[in-house]
Amino acid sequence: MTRILHLSDTHFGTERKPVVEAALDLARALAPELVVLSGDITQRARRGQFAAARKFIERLSLPVLAVPGNHDIPLFNVFARALNPYGNYKRALGAVLEPVFENDGLLAIGVNTTTPRRRKDGEISAGQIARVAQRLRQARPGQLRVVVAHHPVRAKVESDLSNLLIGREPALAAWTQAGVDLVLGGHIHLPYVLPLDPSAPAGGWIVQAGTACSRRVRGNIPNSVNVITCGGEGGCHVERWDYAAGAHAFAPVDKTLVAR
């Protein structure tokens, strides 16, 4: 059994403290093998916001794989954006922007889809695509093969088409061929699960997360996280857990079975 707690778009600096505590409570109760933070960890990439994120990660006391989002690069500090865009990120979360986590049942590969020359949009290079594909091909038999990026690669609603990752089609073709099971993302604060290729739903899945704990919720969608559980021959279950204000806790609201 492999379990992943997928959090995204925490936007520390706009966090709701009761929701942060509820996320920590959920992590303690589930004790996942890995907690994924798929970008926009802070609101404006400031030192204090990264310090709050660092404290949150320390309180998790669990393995964490984090990748940057566009909000984790300074926006208003143009000198930092030009000369040292990931300085505060690295100071708080470590120097590796594309980390890899591996155990007997899981291979998770982080991809940095941000670029300082783009304010919001994400982009992936041919070199990144090849690196991830090569690492996927090196997975051991039985490992769940996961790629983590901030920007989405498939949209559920038409208004999000403009938010899709630049370079996604060659990336998805290469990673599907290399055997990817799940591509986890965030950015648009809309949770959903879609097949990588609608014509071949057994060929990998997109798992998008909402905003885990910030005030920047989308429409009527509350703060939410994903719990991914895989084991045996039954594939994986992706559960969406929403924050219930009355209970001060996250609770499951939806479950999707995805084939492997």
Automatic annotation (TrEMBL):
Pfam families for this protein: Metallophos (PF00149)
Domain of life: Bacteria
Domain Calcineurin-like phosphoesterase: 3-190
GO molecular-function term, one example from the UniProt record: metal ion binding
Enzyme Commission number(s): 3.1.4.53
Keywords (A to Z) from UniProt: Hydrolase, Iron, Metal-binding
PANTHER family: CYCLIC NUCLEOTIDE PHOSPHODIESTERASE CBUA0032-RELATED, PHOSPHOHYDROLASE
Family indicated by similarity: Belongs to the cyclic nucleotide phosphodiesterase class-III family.
Name of the molecule in the record: 3',5'-cyclic adenosine monophosphate phosphodiesterase CpdA
Organism: Achromobacter agilis
Encoding gene (name): cpdA_1
